[in-house]
């Protein structure tokens, strides 16, 4: 199974992608996590992307496409994966679709979590104050100014990605405002509906 989770920063993509990956026994691939661990390790890649990430800018399509292409070739991705945070631009979406064709692979579904922007700001406030109270490190890009920029980046670039997947019939919209378990249940229902209609299409030719 290969699925993508789309949605603005703070919409709960990461949480839902993790739940989904665990449920279906597949790998959760967060491009943000991959890049953050590169930054932490001080690798060449980490040094290359740190300032862009800290300021809430996107890293280049070419670089992120290469990272994802290499990662999904790893053995642990053979059964499938949940992509979280990729693709984020139309160029990434097109490159990824070409890559799947090249690998004779297909996507099962693309879920987009919808949350209004006020709701997002509320969530990020809670995330930062929770982390602060527990003494956890606060992500440098969870700063409010940077966070607003990341939302703007999303609004500017990612709606084309949603449109792209809607056009090829893979997009499923999920109300991301409900509680975690309800959202997870809705995702499961949408996935099985998609499968049912594909089976019907095959039966009716
Ligand atoms: P995230 O944890 O998904 O919100 O990603 C954190 C940061 O990593 C983003 O603000 C970008 O700087 C970078 N990043 C993650 N995924 C991508 C992507 N698909 N394209 C470009 N930059 C990305």
Layout: helices, strands, pairs:
Layout (H helix, E strand, L loop, with lengths): L1 E5 L6 H12 L2 E4 H11 L2 H11 L6 H11 L9 E4 L5 H13 L6 E6 L2 H18 L9 H24 L3 E5 L4 H25 L1
Parallel strand pairs: 1-3, 1-4, 2-3, 4-5
Helix pairs in contact: 1-8, 2-3, 4-5, 6-7
Adenosine monophosphate binds next to helix 2 and helix 3.
Quick structural summary:
The protein is of the alpha/beta class.
Helix percent band? 55-70%
| Total count of strands | 5
| Oligomer category | single chain
Shape: globular
Rg (C-alpha, Å): 17 Å
Order of helices and strands: EHEHHHEHEHHEH
Largest sheet: 5 strands, parallel
| Small molecules (ligands, ions, cofactors) in the structure | adenosine monophosphate
Main β-sheet, spatial strand arrangement: 2-3-1-4-5
Fraction of residues in β-strands: 5-15%
Terminal CA distance: 23 Å
Describe this structure in words.
The chain is α/β, with parallel strands linked by helices and 205 residues long. Helices cover 61% and strands 12% of the residues. The protein contains eight helices and five strands, in the order E-H-E-H-H-H-E-H-E-H-H-E-H. The chain has helices at 13-24, 31-41, 44-54, 61-71, 90-102, 117-134, 144-167, 180-204; strands at 2-6, 27-30, 81-84, 109-114, 171-175. Strands 2-3-1-4-5 form a five-stranded parallel β-sheet, sandwiched between helices. Helix 1 crosses helix 8 and helix 2 (31-41) packs across helix 3 (44-54). The chain is globular. It starts with a strand and ends with a helix. It binds adenosine monophosphate. Adenosine monophosphate is lined by residues 9, 31-32, 35, 52-53, 56-59, 64, 85-86, 88, 92, 141, 150. Adenosine monophosphate (AMP) binds next to helix 2 and helix 3.
């Amino acid at each position: 199974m290969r699925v993508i989770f789309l949605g603005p920063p703070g919409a709960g993509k990461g949480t839902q992608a993790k739940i989904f990956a665990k449920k279906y026994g597949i790998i959760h691939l967060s491009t943000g996590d991959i890049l953050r661990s590169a930054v932490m390790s001080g690798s060449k890649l980490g040094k290359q992307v740190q300032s862009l990430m800290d300021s809430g800018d996107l890293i280049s399509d070419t670089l992120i496409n290469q990272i994802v292409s290499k990662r999904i070739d790893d053995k642990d991705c053979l059964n499938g994966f949940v992509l979280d945070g990729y693709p984020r631009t139309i160029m990434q979406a097109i490159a990824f679709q070409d890559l799947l064709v090249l690998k004779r692979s297909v996507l099962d579904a693309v879920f987009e979590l919808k949350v209004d922007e006020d709701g997002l700001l509320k969530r990020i406030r809670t995330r930062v104050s929770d982390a602060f109270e527990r003494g956890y490190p606060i992500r440098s890009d969870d700063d409010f100014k940077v966070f607003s920029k990341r939302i703007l980046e999303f609004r500017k670039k990612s709606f084309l990605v949603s449109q792209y997947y809607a056009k090829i019939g893979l997009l499923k919209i999920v109300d991301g405002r409900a509680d975690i378990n309800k959202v997870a249940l809705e995702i499961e229902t949408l996935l099985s509906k998609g499968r049912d209609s594909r089976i019907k299409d095959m039966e009716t030719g």
